[in-house]
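Observation: inputs received (chain + guanosine-5'-diphosphate).
Thought: call the complex predictor directly.
Action: predict_structure
Action Input:
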Amino acid sequence: YGDFSPKIDYVFKIVLIGDSAVGKSQLLARFARNEFSLDSKATIGVEFQTKTLLINDKTVKAQIWDTAGQERYRAVTSAYYRGAVGAMLVYDITKRQSFDHMARWLEELRTHADKNIVIMLIGNKCDLGSLRAVPTEDAQEFAERENLYFMETSALEATNVESAFSSALKEIYQAAS
Ligand code: GDP
Ligand code: MG
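Observation:
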């Protein structure tokens, strides 16, 4: 890009974790490319996407990692968590089990990741309100108890997706600067 390449002040690695099919890959597609697909194929291979944004006049490059469809505890290796300064812990508001598993994902995170990692709990698919199986209050309570930020999102309708990532990035930025 020669002279046009912006100066990057910070690169922040963020990992997406949570059960299979909760919408992690679609949240990333929505945030990084403003895309969404209803029949997204299972993620193949560990991959990340980047998005550069301005926070307090600084250029911040978010490098967001998506799991390789190996969403079982301990299958996600410590290399995935290495260097991560943020984590999005995602469940599906229509799948109680995906929320009940949040405690185990959190335990994995606390075992493998840096102790100062910023964690955002995300209840995705909030467009499917009539199928809701996880009351917002349950998640709020869990988030408060575990000291997590919390937001409900819809990758489909683009609700709170930008806001969830940018809030996490702002917290990370504050901790880093
Ligand atoms: P992952 O396994 O966690 O990466 O989940 P995917 O991103 O592959 O999504 C699994 C399925 O849920 C796909 O069919 C998506 O289209 C769908 N999905 C993802 N996010 C949303 C959402 O916000 N609302 C609805 N209704 N469906 C979603
Ligand atoms: Mg995926």
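Thought: report the result.
Final Answer: Helices lie at 24-33, 78-81, 96-100, 102-112, 136-146, 161-176. Residues 20-26, 37-40, 43, 124-125, 127-128, 154-156 surround guanosine-5'-diphosphate (ligand 1) (CB under 6 Å).
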